[in-house]
Amino acid sequence: MATRRVLTTGLAVLAADQISKIAVVHLMDLKTLLAIDVWPPYLNFRMAWNYGINFGLFSNSADLMRWVLVAVALAISAWVILWLHRDNQGRMAQISGGLLVGGAIGNVIDRIAYGAVADFLNMSCCGFSNPYSFNIADIAIFAGAIGLIVFTSSQKPADAPPENR
Question: What SS3 state is found at 110?
């Protein structure tokens, strides 16, 4: 059940991420237009190709870094799935793991298909003009990582079988 919840959540995030990228980047042609004001300043689409990690860090040596980041994302995803399956963490930890894995795989697909991650969401508010773009996968990775910190423990959940408590 634990692995199923992680994978189901991950697939939902992956689908939302990739569908949003197809819709905005390709169908709305953001890759050519580069900017679409949706609800300024709160929500805008701004095309950004991220060759590194968050905020473009480590974007030098783009081709080598591309494959390093693909390998790291796949290794972390596999480790999270195995860890949550083995330790039988609770429901919220499993959902958090699925968020992280789904987001990571969404960005892996971008790196393989485009050579970079397609970022397009840009949000500003209250006099702050955000220069950065992100995507649904990035949101899921961040929320999943926070959730794993908050919702995991070294103690087994009460509903775990006696041999796994």
Answer: helix
Q: What whole-number distance in Å separates Cα of residue 120 and Cα of residue 47?
A: 5
Residue 26: enclosing H or E segment and its boundaries? none
Q: Which residues contact 120 (CB under 8 A, 6 or more apart)?
A: 21, 24, 25, 30, 45, 46, 47, 48, 133, 135
Count CB atoms within 10 A of the CB of residue 114. Answer: 15
Span 74-101, average pLDDT: 95
52-56, 68-72, 150-154: segment of lowest average pLDDT: 52-56
Residue-wise pLDDT tens digits, 9-39: 999 999 999 999 999 999 999 999 999 999 9
- pLDDT tens track for 115-127: 999 999 999 998 8
Which residues are annotated as catalytic? 119, 138
d(C-alpha 133, C-alpha 118), whole Å: 9
106: tokens are 């969404």
Query: Smallest Cα–Cα separation from 70: which of 57, 48, 94, 53?
Result: 53
- Which residue spans within the chain are E strands per DSSP? 35-39, 43-50, 117-122
∠ CA(28), CA(122), CA(131), 5° rounding? 125
90: alpha, beta or left? (left if phi > 0; alpha if psi -120 to 50): beta
